[in-house]
Specification:
This protein is of the alpha+beta class. It has 2 domains: 99 residues, Orthogonal Bundle (Peroxidase, domain 1), CATH 1.10.520; 72 residues. Helix content is 60%, strand content 16%. The chain contains 8 helices and 4 strands. Strands 2-1-3-4 form a 4-stranded mixed sheet. Helix 1 packs across helix 6.
Length: 179
């Protein structure tokens, strides 16, 4: 199967369009989280992977999840996911849907990785710089530590990565010297 994020993207985009049209963005986001939780269960996965089970049985299993969205649209989604064997991409669909929802709300998710934990002053400085960089949008700041960076930061959001780490600079130098 293709990369799950690639498979998930058109489903997430279509669902977000449907949710926005009906004004139920948060209800659909919640429903996708519930569905991902159901599918994460090993017994549910075994049931869904069982070639002896009819598609209708699989849809019925997933339809039992308590959701607050249009039942016809929900069942149509579940039928598509089962029929095209796309149910393993459910978590990614939910993630991409959530990203689209946060983007529409003017929120940009940013992961800042540093070699050592940032202190409060450093977090404030980085947060301020990111808010200037993404003017007009609220920055949802997450932090992680990776000692392999040696020093500096790697900032990641969506398709944008800013590598200002010592490791990144050394790797760039090595590429330059090889060429």
């Amino acid at each position: 199967m293709a990369d799950l994020i690639t498979v998930a993207r058109p489903y997430a985009e279509a669902l977000y369009g449907l949710a926005k049209e009906s004004g139920q963005e948060q209800a659909w986001a919640d429903a996708l989280q519930v569905l991902a939780a159901v599918i994460a269960d090993t017994q549910a996965q075994a049931f869904l992977n069982d070639p002896e089970r009819a598609e209708a049985e699989k849809v019925a299993l997933l339809s039992a999840a308590p959701v607050k969205v249009d039942s016809k649209a929900w069942e149509a989604l579940l039928t598509l996911l089962i029929h095209h064997d796309r149910w393993p991409a459910t978590a990614e669909i939910g993630t991409l849907f959530g990203e689209a929802l946060r983007h529409a709300e003017g929120i940009v998710d940013v992961l800042v990785t540093s070699a050592i934990a940032l202190d409060a002053n450093q977090k404030t400085t980085v947060q301020s710089a990111l808010e200037r960089r993404f003017a007009g949008r609220k920055v949802a700041f997450r932090e992680s530590v990776d000692a392999a960076l040696i020093g500096g930061l790697v900032i990641h959001t969506g398709d944008l990565t800013i590598d200002a780490s010592v490791r990144g600079q050394v790797q760039q130098l090595a590429r330059t010297l090889r060429s």
